[in-house]
Amino acid sequence: MKFFLKILFSFIFLSMVKLGYSQEPLNFKKLDKVFHGNSKIEEGDLGYLWITSNKGVYKFNGYEYIFNPYDSIFTNFKKSDQEFLVKKDHRKSMWLSSLNGELIKIDTLNRKKSFSNVLTHNKRKIQITAIVPNKNQVWFGSEEGSLYKYNYNNLKLDSITSLPLIKKMGFKITNIKFINDNNFWVSTNNKKIYKYSINENKLEELELPSNLNGSYLRIALDSNKDLWISSDNGNIYKYKTKGKKYREFLLKFNSTSNENSSSVNFNMIISLLYDINGFIWIGTDGDGLYKIDVETDELTLYKNNKNNRFSISNNSITNISQDRNGNLYFLDKTGVINMLAKSNDYIKYYHGLEDNTPMSVLSIFKSSDSSIWLGTDGEGLNRILPNKEKTHYSINEKGKKFFTARYIQSIEENPKGQLWLATYLNGLWVFKDGNFSKVGTPDESGKNNEEVRFLFKDSKNRIWSTSATSFNIFSAENKLLATFDYNANGLRGEYSHGIVENKDGDIFVIVNNGGLFQFNEVEIFKDSYFKHIPFNKTIQENLKKINIRSLILGADNSLWLTLYPGGLFNYNIKENTFKSYENKENLKDLVIVSTIIEGDNKLWLGSTAGVHKYNFKDDIIESFFQSDGLHGDTYNKRSIFKDNNGYVYFGGNHGVNAFLPEKLNKKISDAKLYINYLEILNKPANEIINDQLKNGLENLENLSLTANQSSFSFQFSAIENIANPNYYYTYMLEGFDKNWILSKKDRIATYTNIPSGKYTFKVKAGSTKGVWDIKSSKIDIKIKPYWWNSTLAYFIYTLILLIIVYSIFVWFRLKEKLIKETLHNNQEKEIYAVKMNFFAKMSHEIQTPLTLILGPIADMLQRADSNGNTLLKQRLQIISNNANRLSRIATELMTVRNKELGRLRVYASQNDLIAHLKKISVSFSEQARFKNIDFIQDYPNKKIFTWYDLDKIEHVLYNLLSNAFKFTPPEGTVKIVVEENQKKKTIKISISDSGPGIPEKDLKDIFKLFYQSDLGKSRKGTGIGLALTKELINIHHGKIKVKSSSKEGTKFSISLSMDENVFTPEEKVSVDENSLFTESSDKDFYLLNKDLINKKIKESDKKFTLLIVEDNVEMQIFLKDILTESYNLFIAENGKQGIELAEKNKPDLIISDIMMPVMDGVEMSNILKKKKSTSHIPIIFLTAKNSTSIKIEGLESGAIEFLRKPFNFYELTLKIHNILESQEKLISRFKLDSISSQEKNHVPSKDGQFLESLVKELDKNIENPDFKLDELAGSLNMSYSVIYRKCIDITGKTLVEFVRSRRLKKAALLIVESGYNVSEASYMVGYKDSRYFTKCFKEEFGKTPKAFKMESQNTDLQDFLKKNKFT
């Protein structure tokens, strides 16, 4: 009965309790990252904020969120885990638990230890639901009601006890709160609370109020050790442990100020916290956030307001936590974290509007009745009375609260207590006796301006207003005294935002685009004027780009101006000087919007990034932000005011903050600086050097990198108060950087391609720019060199160097021994080079004289034969044979040289080998007959066609046969045998003699160059033949063997392949079968056709012209002797002269040597073939070079025939005759085709049209001596340069030469056909001077006009004109 009465009395008492209640806003700041509605928040040892998510833990340092995935924390993480707990113990270790029974301890060195194996029951993992540290222990509550304890003394996790089962079922432990070291409270999700005694290991259930609804209980313990209990049904109770009494707090919402009309809403409570400031915070599911003052029991509600960005983000608060700085964190069900920084009692806050909605404030004023007036940006005027009542004047209000202006830019008060209001686009207003009246602001022309920017009251109580066009000054009685337009009275510019009066009564104004002006007042006030005070040159020249934002008076009677861009300027009135502060390091990054003076050397600055106290004397700045208790960091231009009590007001887009400057001071920083992120090669460091980061990056002291890891980045941050991350940083890499580097906003230091070596990365931080008052942090870095730059490598290099030095030493010792051999070898090389060069020169030089010998000899042989002089013929034949032998020796020398230079190659063609052998054998028949040697030739009875180099095999056979006949005595035998092996596709040629044989000791060396046996030396050999023979057989992919004995003589066997595939396509050339004629048959052919040639030449009567290009005078004479009777000849000594004569005389054929000074024959041929005027002339090459490559090169240059020296002159004359006759027939055929073709089908070429037009135009002016060639440009419609170039391309002559030739030919015709004399003819073709005409005529035709005329009279005229190419 007593217990019942006791309970009844308690409830009656509770029902009579009246709670103080209010609903007020706070400045909640939202973190910029959204998490999970079930996330948990805990401050770590280093100051990071640990925030759990469904994928990992984020560590927030005030700037960034550093992510740590769960799979790097838990050993058996499962994606199904969605609920996690995180808690810091007194040893600064972090504990994390998961829904699936994972429990991990992470110590300060980032070492992890799992206790999941302990937390098992019947092989099922147990979930930890509560973690509470207590001194050297950590206590855990589980989902099944078990209590566990971790003891740092033995480093073990033990199960201590379990809560009583209800219906054989355990229940979840929701909270653990320690009363003292021996006792703590335990709450559950089954409407039970227990008190546990550690020493007694005893559980005692707490008796709860009977009207406590709900089962999920949460508890909090305040500083009085009273227990606060919440239920999921909205109940809040305070259990006073001393009296063991309960007190209920009803969470109610007053819809009106009348209590009787209040309505009570009960909501689910889902979070509960007691903070260090003495407040209980209660998070509900949909009804907002409640705060209860433990001392006064005052209840405050915070709800989301869509119009107030500083309100709580959501009305459902799932988690509440607090850091060591007193900052509170409220997590809503959407995952948004609301941070409530610890309040600053010295800072006052005023909202922009009556309903406490933050509004952007443009102007602030405290009137004489102590009312605070706030001019808003779009919402009219707000008044705050001394009793904190608020009145709002706007276009939306009625009655006396109605005010049409929306934007209040400036406020001022006159001595009568009347308030002046400057508005944007609504003009100037005066508020008096509760009413608004409008005041006109006309310019000097009388036109009113509605845009009023600024107001100022001077020492004579006059009100100055600035508009878009002028200054208006009003008396104390509100009468307009004067108007001064901006572009008159000494003013210039537009808009003014500042007026001040100094202690001497001088008034100064600022005007945008104009600058600073001083007002000079005269007796008649309207006649007053302004004097311009120029800025420095740079500012003055850029005034149009600069906005002068404000003007204030300094304590020393100087002026402070705020420019944008440009920063702060101070104007010393006495000295008339400006001082700029724009380059001060502490002000560089600030955008200053408002200024006010404090004391002698301080300025308070409003900016777009906080409020700053600047000591301009010592260049020291203190910055204050939202984290320091301000309600925002962005402030408005000129929205600043200082009242008579010393309070400074700053207006921004959040409302107004006010404070006493002497009370607002920056607390000494206790921040710790950490390097908290490292990238190597643009990848997180834990992906590359995870083994070095086992203790955490913050604990890293030494960093070891390989040579290819020399690009890295550090990120760092100072952590003290997460709510205030505004620090300054500087860093350097010692050993690389020479100076400290100021960090940018991202706080990242990046280095690339750092050389190997030892470095120290250092970073410093400070709460004030330039003052590094936070302990620095550093990491020693060692970058290993590449292997080739390592210590071992340098040891190897040293060893190699020593070896080199030793080798050099040994080399110098051997030098004396080697120098003689080297000199000897060099001499041999020089002799060898000289010898090879001698071979080449001699081979070439010998061939030309041989040609001059063989040519006349051939002619003499023919004549001796025709005259029947047998003795003469025999002797001449001996001369001819030896000359031919000498030619072969020269060719042999050339071949040896080519072999030694690596230029010897094969030019294979398909030939009849048997016919070739017979031809060669004929040359030795006379020798066999003379020495009475039996010359046996054994050939197959068929033609054998195979691939080989005709010249080279001929050389081999000549050499072997020559040796055979040389060493065979008279009456001996020389035998040549040819055998074909069709199976092996080879052909074997054997040449044997009955000579003395080759000694056996010499057989192995006979194929060496210049080697001669004793027998060979006695026979005056050269030692070249056999060596060259073997080399020529080798390049034919064949073999040569020798057998010799003194009894049987010597036998050489040559084996050649008959397979054409042994030669590459490059080694094969096509040869006309006609080339297989023998020299004798060629000779016979020429002799047979000699009469025909002479006959035809006689008939032709020298109608053709030949050009001989030859540098050898004797060869010139020889060719001239044999050709002059049949042809007109021109002779040139080199290719250059040959081109000039060919262009001038247009020969019918050119005979040229190849090797000549100045320009060789091949180059000359290439040039002539490119010119249209000479491209048709056939060219025959004569050369002593015995090389197929030279022949191909000559033919490619445009030559049509190629004769090697020595040549048969009959062959030359016949080829000349055939070429010229073929050309003449071709021309005749062309003319016949042209005549027979229809005229209408004839379409002249562009070149023909051009030439026809040119000739036509020249013929028109041929008699005009003053005709100038550049006049052709107009008549032919093309530039002179084009005409000149086309003339050269088509005719081969310059335009001047062509015109002169045309005139001279015309004159020649006039002389020989028309009978004009020389002077008449010269005048008729445009020559004024007959002497000059005669000179030109002789150069053109080779004779004077008189001689030319006489010659024409002595011959048939048509033949004469044809001979001189007039037809």
UniProtKB/TrEMBL annotation:
Domain called HTH araC/xylS-type: residue spans: 1252-1351
Entry-linked InterPro entries: CheY-like_superfamily, HATPase_C_sf, HATPase_dom, His_kinase_dom, HisK_dim/P_dom, HisK_dim/P_sf, Homeodomain-like_sf, HTH_AraC
GO MF entries: ATP binding; DNA-binding transcription factor activity; phosphorelay sensor kinase activity; sequence-specific DNA binding
Response regulatory domain: residues covered: 1105-1220
Membrane-traversing stretches: 786-812
SUPFAM superfamilies: ATPase domain of HSP90 chaperone/DNA topoisomerase II/histidine kinase (SSF55874), Calcium-dependent phosphotriesterase (SSF63829), CheY-like (SSF52172), Homeodomain-like (SSF46689), Homodimeric domain of signal transducing histidine kinase (SSF47384), NHL repeat (SSF101898)
Entry's EC annotation: 2.7.13.3
Record key words, sorted: ATP-binding, DNA-binding, Kinase, Membrane, Nucleotide-binding, Phosphoprotein, Transcription, Transcription regulation, Transferase, Transmembrane, Transmembrane helix, Two-component regulatory system
The protein's name in its UniProt record: histidine kinase
Species the sequence originates in: Polaribacter haliotis
